[in-house]
Amino acid sequence: MAQEHLERFLGDIAPAFRAGDPDVATKEAESRNVAVLQEVYKALAGGDFEAALATLHDDVELEITGPADMPFRGRWKGRAEVGEALRRNFAMIEDQEPVIRSIEAQGDQVDVVFHEHGRVRETGAPYAVLCAQSFTIRDGKILGVEQYVEDLTPPGPILDA
């Protein structure tokens, strides 16, 4: 991920969380949870998978859904399986340019919507996706992630498998 896009994405997290909520200063638990997301996004964007895994609960579950032809789809349980999935998925893409559309936090749930474009590492083909992620955070660790990915790349799938 290009450094300037990474910095913009990370810098947009806190303002997106605060946007439109006059009571955001009173949401201490939610602020801590958003900080956990900022930490994991920073680690993943920097390719530091060990730091990213340190933000995960031992019993973490990750489920990614989307179009049938998308190779990122799957369900993984436990830090080791989720770590393998993250490494595999991020190894498929490069030059990611994510842009946050919204962040909402309530209690132990944080929902993030963003769009991203970049290139498929193997072919150099461009891709564009819209992602909705729902995180469950307990005791400062990510316990669950549900992600839906919509392919916006015309005319075909994100990756030709």
UniProtKB/TrEMBL annotation:
Q: Which domain of life is it from?
A: Bacteria
**Where do the SnoaL-like domain residues begin and end?**
38-143
**What is the protein name given in its UniProt record?**
Nuclear transport factor 2 family protein
Q: Which organism is it from?
A: Paludisphaera mucosa
